[in-house]
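Hey, I was hoping to borrow your eyes for a little while. I've been puzzling over a protein and I'd love to understand its fold better. The fold is given in discrete form, as structure tokens running alongside the sequence. I'd be grateful if you could look everything over and explain what you see. No rush at all, and the record is pasted right below.
>
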Amino acid sequence: QLQASGGGLVQAGGSLRLSCAASGFTVDDYAIGWFRQAPGKEREGVSCITSSDGSTYYKDSVMGRFTISSDNAKNTVYLQMNSLKPEDTAAYYCAALVGTIATMTRAIMFPELYEYDYWGQGTQVTVSS
């Protein structure tokens, strides 16, 4: 399973680090993605990583502000979020699927088209203006 944590309330321009802890499987064997969903909006992919080779992908909306990383020893993937904006407010989820960075990148772009092997519970991020 996946356990997401680290959300909270922060002012615009602030930072948060989300964690996605895996149990029962090894993150190194999967592509891991972060997704978010704001009230009344569709699920949106944010970023993804394959720990096996360090490949990453970011949506344009978070490029340069968010950094995805993994700690294989802790079997955890992180999303460092800097320069947060009110439009980043959403419930953030992590998900895993067996595939390459290309596969998860397409899932980031089209979240509803893929089936995920694991999907974690959300952690709320609220950015005040």
